[in-house]
Amino acid sequence: MPRVGLTTDRVVAAAADLADASGLEAVTVSALARHFGVKDASLYTHVRNLQDLRVRVALLAGGELIEEIAQAVAGRAGKEALAAFAGAYRAYALRHPGRYAATQIRVEQALVAGSPALRRTAEITYGMLRAYGLTEPDLTDAVRLLRATFHGYCALEASGGFGAPRDVRVSWDRAVDALHVALENWPRADATEGGEGTRG
């Protein structure tokens, strides 16, 4: 029987906190069992296995991230929306490194389709880019550019990968400025080349 007071939400939240504190690789069923003072088997009532647990952390983190982005971009368009989106993304990635790492886990398309948070992520991201006049397949290409730029920058910043003395925030702002220019002057592709994807 499930331990009294132990729920799937509590298990996933604890896993997310552990990921932030010690890294996503530290998230194991055994580590969580020790945290709750139970045997490993007790947690399998709430999660199927380690992969299921980490995917649940990814979905939790994805929901938190898009909520912060949505609040930041509300009422904004164009460059203001892009800067707000980028700023919220970077702030979350730096504040919650383990949760953010989980958002990079590849999630099965069936789970993506069934996740309101991931659908909302697509809606907000593509909506922002449509304001630049982009349509498919340029939308998907632009999403991939933003994701690669944001993720690459945040990963390097978090690992101390920027050694030059210039303020990393200033460089970030300049990168966002450059992305805005790129989006405004996007080279249009043939509409038959590709299609829209949920996560880019």
Q: What keywords describe this structure?
A:
200 residues, Tetracycline Repressor, domain 2, 10 helices, single chain, mainly alpha
Rg, rounded, reads: 19 Å
CATH architecture of the domain at 60-184: Orthogonal Bundle
CATH topology of the domain at 60-184: Tetracycline Repressor, domain 2
**How far apart are the termini?**
41 Å
- Per DSSP E runs of 2 or more residues, the count of β-strands stands at 0
**Secondary-structure element sequence?**
HHHHHHHHHH
Strand proportion: under 5%
Please work out how many helical segments DSSP would assign.
10
The largest pleated sheet is described as: none
Mean pLDDT: 92
Shape: globular
> What would CATH call the class of the domain at 60-184?
Mainly Alpha
Low-confidence segments, given as residue ranges, are: none
Helix percentage range: 55-70%
Kindly summarize this structure in a few lines.
The chain is mostly helical. The chain has ten helices and no strands.
Structure description:
The protein has a domain at 60-184: Tetracycline Repressor, domain 2, CATH 1.10.357.10. The protein is globular. The N and C termini lie far apart (41 Å). It has helices at residues 8-22, 29-36, 40-43, 50-73, 78-95, 97-102, 109-113, 116-130, 138-158, 168-184. With 200 residues, it is mostly helical. 66% of the residues lie in helices and 0% in strands. Helix 8 packs across helix 9 (138-158) and helix 9 (138-158) runs antiparallel to helix 10 (168-184). The chain is built from 10 helices and no strands.
